[in-house]
């Protein structure tokens, strides 16, 4: 006689989902690390002795500020991904911090560093 244990099936599915999410976080960490390095190169100081025209220099300074904002955003994402990776085995991982409901797997796969569901994120 076979017994059906739905809890066991849910645990196996949950473990598979966590492996999938963990791999997604690792992939995002690698991609974001590359972006951070790229933005760090683009935000290096602009030397005043460079022989570029006044308008070109102003354009370079403007581009630098845009790249600094992108660097800041990428560094925040990198930190959030590192936190998510460290907390993936916590029992409350994947649950919204506001309403305590489960965050859909699709949202976690798109944004592995998310800590809130779509409704609470609005």
Terminus-to-terminus distance? 50 Å
- The poorly predicted ranges are 1-12
CATH structural architecture: Up-down Bundle
Assembly level: single chain
Radius of gyration: 21 Å
CATH class: Mainly Alpha
Q: Report the helical percentage.
A: 55-70%
> What is the fourth-level CATH superfamily?
DksA, coiled-coil domain
Write down the secondary-structure element order: HHHH
Give the amount of beta strand, in percent: under 5%
Q: Based on CA inertia axes, which overall geometry fits?
A: elongated
CATH topology: Four Helix Bundle (Hemerythrin (Met), subunit A)
Average of pLDDT? 81
Q: What does this entry look like structurally?
A:
It is built from four helices and no strands. The longest helix has 37 residues, at 6-42. Mean pLDDT is 81; it is low at 1-12. The protein has helices spanning 6-42, 54-86, 105-110, 118-121. The protein has one domain (18-44, 53-121): DksA, coiled-coil domain (Four Helix Bundle (Hemerythrin (Met), subunit A)).
Summarize the structure.
The chain has four helices and no strands. The protein is mostly helical.
Which helices and strands occur, and which strands form pairs?
Layout: H1 6-42, H2 54-86, H3 105-110, H4 118-121
Keywords:
122 residues; mainly alpha; Four Helix Bundle (Hemerythrin (Met), subunit A); 0% strand; disordered N terminus
């Amino acid at each position: 006689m076979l017994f059906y244990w739905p809890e066991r099936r849910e645990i196996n599915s949950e473990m598979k989902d966590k492996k999938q999410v963990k791999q997604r976080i690792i992939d995002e960490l690698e991609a974001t690390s590359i972006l951070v390095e790229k933005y760090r190169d683009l935000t290096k100081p602009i030397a005043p002795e460079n022989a570029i025209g006044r308008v070109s220099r102003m354009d370079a300074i403007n581009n630098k500020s845009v790249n600094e904002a992108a660097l800041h955003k990428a560094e925040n994402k990198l930190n959030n991904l590192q936190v998510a990776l460290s907390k993936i085995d916590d029992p409350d991982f994947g649950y919204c911090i506001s309403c305590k409901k489960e965050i859909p797997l699709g949202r976690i796969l798109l944004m592995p560093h998310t800590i809130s569901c779509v409704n609470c994120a609005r």
